[in-house]
Structures are given as structure tokens and as C-alpha cells.
């Protein structure tokens, strides 16, 4: 047991009770990860989808899904971002940078963009650890690259699915064409490339008063807020903030 300066006995008793819950949460998180790893083989991809991306020389090229796997790295973590944003999105658009030149309906989702801001710093470490990572948007490749430059992204591979049915086939696009945020993992084995797992929690009913938390365990921004006495505010990510944020 540890203590901190000037804390009361009441605080320490409550903190020890909370710690027991945190230990249980840690245990359950590992149980969920273990169950995920034990999933039976998922479905093989029906086609080697072709995306628009940047080739080895940094020029626009056709990139197959299989080419998103580097030699010796058999798992691909792929984030389907909402680009373009949802038709009912009301938050402000970008007002500077190349992305600001796009019409409102063609601009990216602020939440997806904020999440990818957080992911970009981790991708280099993921790759060094033996994993592949890519971001898919249903917008022109140049729009994705422009957003990347505007945000200062340096590590993530950006590809466009504007010319294929990938997002629709893998539940990242609604029947009306609206984009759906989804993290998916594909795994390559001796039989080919299989879908391993996707973040289906956003499709499940939420508990009363709770955030959907489709990617709750890896949303750094919101998890940091959970450590504070205020908790998660009635607030939403934006593409840009004022000078006094």
C-alpha cells in the first residue's frame, strides 16, 4: 500500500476500493484480448481489393490489399475513417490548410481525424513491433494526402477506396453511402488473407448514459479525461480550435 502527502484515511480507504476495481478491469481486459486471439479463422477476402495510394517512389499508384502487408508482417490493422464526413455532421469544417478548400460535405469527420492524430505517433512503433497499419477513406487520394499534410501525419499509410467496394463489403459504409468508422484487422496465413476482427461495439446497443466507446480501450484523448474528477465533458472533437483552447 502507498500513500500520498496529506491524504485522509477516508481517501485512502476509497482509493484502495477503487484499486480493486481497477485490478479487476485489468483482468477482464486481458481475458477479452485472449478471447479475441482465440477466435476461429475469419472469412477469406473475396478479392484482392485495389486502392489508390502512393507507391514505393512516392507517386500515385494502384495498391492491392495484399500489398499493404510488408514481408514477414502478417497482421494488418486498418482504420476506416469517415472521409467524407457523415451527411448529418454539424461540426465546423476546416478553415485553413488545403482541406479547407473542400466543400462542407466533402470534408473529413472531426472525430476520426482526432483519433488518427493520436494514432500517427504510435504507427512507427507498431511497424517496428511487426505489424502493418493503414487508413482507408472513401475520398480522392489527393484529399487524404492533403489532410495528412495539414495534420502533420508522418507515419500512417493513406489509401483511397473511392474506386472499389471494400468499405461497403466490410461494414464501413451504410446502404445510403454514409461512412462508418471501423477498425478492422486482417491476417495473412497459408490460405490467403482473412478478416480477423472488427470493432463491432459501435453496432451494439449502449448502456443508458454511456458513450458508445467503440474503440474505448485505445482512444487516448477520452481515456485521459476519465482520469480526472470532471470526467468526459459534453464536448466533441473539432478539426480546428480557437487560440484559447
Describe the structure.
It comes from Mesorhizobium caraganae. This is DUF899 family protein. Residues 11-38 form a coiled coil. Keywords: Coiled coil. By secondary structure, this protein is α/β, with parallel strands linked by helices. The chain is 29% helix and 17% strand. The radius of gyration is 20 Å and the shape is globular. The protein starts with 8 loop residues before the first helix and ends in a 19-residue tail after the last helix.
The gist of it:
This protein has 245 residues and is an alpha/beta fold.
Number of helices: 5
Share in helix:
25-40%
H/E series: HEEEHEHEHEEH
Count of beta strands: 7
Low-confidence stretches at least 5 residues in length (pLDDT < 50)? none
Beta percentage is 15-25%
Distance between the termini: 38 Å
Q: What best-fitting shape do the alpha-carbon axes yield?
A: globular
Characterize the main sheet.
5 strands, mixed
Gyration radius, in Å: 20 Å
Order of strands, widest sheet = 5-4-3-6-7
* Helix and strand composition category: alpha/beta
Instruction: Give the mean pLDDT.
Output: 95
Coiled coil: 11-38
Keywords: Coiled coil
Pfam family, one: DUF899
Protein name: DUF899 family protein
Give descriptors for this structure.
245 residues; alpha/beta; five-stranded mixed beta sheet; two-stranded antiparallel ribbon; 5 helices; 7 strands; 29% helix; 17% strand; globular; DUF899_thioredox; coiled coil
Please describe the topology of this protein.
Layout: H1 9-37, E1 50-54, E2 60-64, E3 75-80, H2 110-128, E4 132-137, H3 141-151, E5 157-160, H4 166-169, E6 182-189, E7 192-198, H5 220-226
Parallel strand pairs: 3-4, 4-5
Antiparallel strand pairs: 1-2, 3-6, 6-7
